[in-house]
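Dig into what follows:

_____
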Amino acid sequence: MKKLVHFLVTVCVLAGLGFTLWIGLRKQEQKSAGHEPKAREDAAATEEKAEDFVVTIEREKRERLGLEKATPEKTELAPRRVAFGRVLDPTPLVALDGELAAAEAVLAASRAENDRTQKLLAAGENTSRRIAEGAQAQFRADEIKVESLRRKALLDWGEDLANLDATKRRALAEQLINGAVAIVRVDILPGDALTEPPRSARLLVLGRETQPIETNEIAPAFDADPKTQAQGFLLRVEKPPFALRPGMALTAWLELAEKPRSGFAIPRSAVLRHDGRAWVFVQEDEEKFVRKPVTLDTPLDGEKGWFVVEGGGIDEGDGLVVTGAQMLLSEELKAQGGAEVD
């Protein structure tokens, strides 16, 4: 009897396990079967999304919109680093020049007096050693003061400015006062570092981006930015095209002494801003225009527009829409349901 009971219990347990396993296999099959339709839906959504960037314009409408195209210009660009900064207030430098000028005048007088008393003392003339020693001590004190002010100039304004003689330093102070020269402090991005000073710099003042300023008077700053710990440089700008007021914010593109990079120059009129990105329209055939994302690397001179590095979204031979790109975007968004243009 006990054996029969044990046998029946064993059969029940095995049956329960078998039923549980069968249920699990059925669910797995249903889940696997559901993947294929979902994959097809995802592919269809991706294809639909890609088609959203295409607009078809018939010839008559294209002529009415006045669309014009051009091929990107292949070019090379010297490596650059972006830096951010501001125009410095020249008041401390002008004040320092005044202090140095006064200290140097006093030093010249005490040097002459020391030389005179030392010669009289050596010749046995009517002068006491106490007077000679006093003149010498005054000369040393004045010499130390001038040296201290020059070190301050070195720490605050860099080696180039600190090494100017009195005449050139005074001329620089006058130029800073009348706006013929400006001193700019820029800092590269935190974590970046340059082993050599840049060869030149292009400055773009906020609100005056269409009037870039060039300079090759660059010296390393003695200190780092206290907040970002970024490496800084002092730039001297001579005869700026407009007044550089103290505190003006600006962006600087620092040109480095490295191998140039290959890429393309594209006109500014070809670039669109939409959804927080930069785009261009490329004509693929007579009626088909495709909107492609591009990575804008560096602004170029004048009408050249932007430099796009190879692999940044532009291919050689692309037919870029340079006139009417904004209207193409409006037509595309209108076909999608009247979305607003940025």
